[in-house]
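Troubleshooting log. The previous structure file for this entry was overwritten by mistake, so regenerating from the original sequence record. Sequence copied from the archived sheet and checked twice against the printout by T.R.
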Amino acid sequence: MIPVTTFAGKKVAVFGLGGSGLVSASALLAGGADVVGYDDTQASVIKANAAGIPTGDLRKADWKRIAALVLAPGVPLTHPEPHWVVKLARDANVEIIGDIELFCRERAHHAPGSPFVAITGTNGKSTTTALISHLVKSAGMDAQLGGNIGTAILSLQPPALGLKPLRVHVIECSSYQIDLAPSLDPSIGILINLSEDHLDRHGTMEHYAAVKERLVTGVPSTGTAIVGVDDNWCSNIADGLERAGKRLVRASVRRKLTGGIYAEQQHIIRAEASGALEIADLSGIGSLRGLHNAQNAACATAAALALGFEPAAIQAGLKSFPGLAHRMEEVGRRGFVLFVNDSKATNADSTAQALACFTDIYWIAGGKPKTGGIESLRGFFPRIRKAYLIGEAANEFAATLGNDVPHEIDGTLDKAVAAATRDAEASPSREPVVLLSPACASFDQYRNFEVRGDAFRELVRALPGVIGRQH
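Regenerated output below.
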């Protein structure tokens, strides 16, 4: 844990007592703060009390005595309207911050300049964060991995200078977390891409982009800002950083750059005034298939170079990267058949990235449907040998596939896996792929996409003769 000492002796309110909120409250208590926690859910208040965290109804608090409100990232800050606790804090001129901000203040106080890599973007954040952490570990350093990827930042080991091996904090940041971190100042800040998302929280795309931009504008003059420039939002942000004199590395997977990092036919290349140098080759790395993963790898490579890694170390780290569970996860092989768990693909746009990676696909799809269905995937239909449809969306998807793609309605995942395996093994293809990429939410049959992906993995590994890759 990272004790938060910057509020020692001061009263701090913590609202939202889920995972990160409980850790924040505990870290503040460990640093000497006077903490009062609260949550709209009584069960969370009871759990906090059991963990030794003082609680009290913040509607009745004396806000004149409170130095700060530490807000869980999921609590509405601005849209659709500020939460009641936000309104109370603002009325009392109490600053509203989150756990990322607490980390930044502790780092500034105790270990300024310690390596801190922060990653954001609409898509690919988790894979890029995990990949950078893996590169750091494979180079023999101490990688502290956390943030939006699932481990609360204040539960990590504290920032420090002079350690051997070198400690590097690798932190995924959501827009919600950035919104609560006004002094966010990573030594390496990465903005991968931007597309329309979370507008229910941010109101407009302009506001959403402005929040994301803060992560790279906060990089100090001694640091490095890395920006993927394959969308107009990020390209404009990069131009602004350059005008501001920031140390900037552009990254692209769609075009050659005269300066920066770009991907070309599986090769990651660094372009400088002196010429282009190949840094790494992604060929044959199953965990980094597809254009979207090339973008993730390009940004991670740029971060590794900024940390001082040699190309050989980067190549070795990329090659050994196991990938993330439920994101194009290779869960096993039986003979020539490859089984891929892409349960994280809960909409058609995400599934498009998976379908683009293979040419002989036995596709398991369906679940709780999203608006628009799979009509946007029509361009990938020639790659699909057969579809196996499950869940509430099965009939709707069958109607879209029509006569263009052979399909059957299996209803449940176990029946779909059995049928897809049978057909894939009869395929003349050199590498038929049984792909779970549902293009749907899981909530009709599973609690979340992780449970759905775990079920797929277990079904595959229960098949006789499957050689599984341990994740």
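The CA atoms of residues 347 and 371 lie 9 Å apart. Archived copy saved in two places this time.
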